[in-house]
Amino acid sequence: MTVKNEAVVSTVKRHKEPLFRLIKRTDIPIWKKWVIRIATFAVAAITAGLLFTFIIGDGAAFGTFFKELWSGSFGTERLTYIFLNNWAIMMCISLAVTPAFKMRFWNIGAEGQTLAAALGAAFVIHYFGKSLIEPVVILLMLVAALFMGMLWALLPAIFKAVWGTNETLFTLMMNYVAIQLVNFFVNLWSPGGSGTIGNLGNGSFHGLFGLPYIQNAVFVAIVTIIVFVYLKFFKHGYELEVVGESVNTAKYIGINVKKVIIRTMILSGAVCGFAGFLLVGGSPTPTINTGLVGGRGFTAILVSWLSKFSPIAMIFVAALVVFLQKGASQASDSFHLGASSAFSNIIIGIFFLMIIACEFFIDYQIKFRKKEGK
Asked: At what angle do helices 30-56 and 61-74 cross, to 10 degrees?
């Protein structure tokens, strides 16, 4: 081949090359990663403040936005207790999805698993609350909630392990089954066919340690330690991580993959069940409705992922999410911006979008195609 032909072939190949490609980073130090994350968080906060200022139409609203963020979570003693309760529920559900996600089992059903567990607890209150002593009722609520949470997680696990079904679609559909099941019992139990249930009247352990909502935070702190130790130091934690890295490798070294899938999802369902138990029994007014979980099952997926599946990091990420939710809702209510949840979702979306982008660029580097002659 002549020099001229080689040059033509080289030019054709270069034109077929993509404009850029992604390269996995392996040399970025840990301190630099955290500098990038902190800087991204600051940019997200400034962006959210500017958006709020633009909506209000007052330049002084920028500083007010951050005051509202703080006062929404910690402005009063009562708000602080509510913040702790919301953190506890968010943290518990985030812990629940973590073992499955480390195993690369994409459990999108935490919302339904938690709601089904709450229904189990409410079922005990409705039928046994007035005939049994309170400690027995609370114990039965716990058992029923754990059973329902594990059942809702076990079904997709069995289908995945035995028949290889798509766990994402299966767990997602189980959410809707749980919602309709709760809707059925609410209509069945509602007085006069009103379609709503107020205070169930029994089964509350609210203020167990002398302070409102503290009991939920204490219980979830214990669950956090248990899950951390399980994932970090137990053989089961190692096995689910190997299954997540490579199913073939797990089979080669003698791990029973089907057993690991089912066992891990039972654990996830149990933790979701405990969250459902806290939602009902940990409230001063135990009740049940289709919106009781309030989308936390989906938000928990992002919390777990952004925490890199670390229960310790999850403590702070879950607190950040709840802080933004409560603070943005407070700002929305103070300035009459309509539905408080709508504005808080926008603020959380801004933070999540920027943090996810930040994590992407921490893990990957973009290499552009060199120009000809260079």
From this structure: 110
Closest CA to 321 of 334, 339, 305, 337: 305
CB 344 within 8 A of CB 352: no
The pLDDT tens digits for 119-138 are 999 999 999 999 999 999 99
pLDDT digits (tens, 9 = 90+) for 315-325: 999 999 999 98
Our separate counts of H helices and E strands in the chain read 14, 2
Confidence check: pLDDT of 5 > 70: no
Q: What are phi and psi of 300, to 5 degrees?
A: -60, -30
Structure tokens, 253: 């070294």
Phi, psi angle pair for 24, to nearest 5°: -65, 130
- Give the per-residue SS3 of 40-86: HHHHHHHHHHHHHHHHHCCCCHHHHHHHHHHHHHHCCHHHHHHHHHH
Rounded distance, CA 353 to CA 373, Å?
38
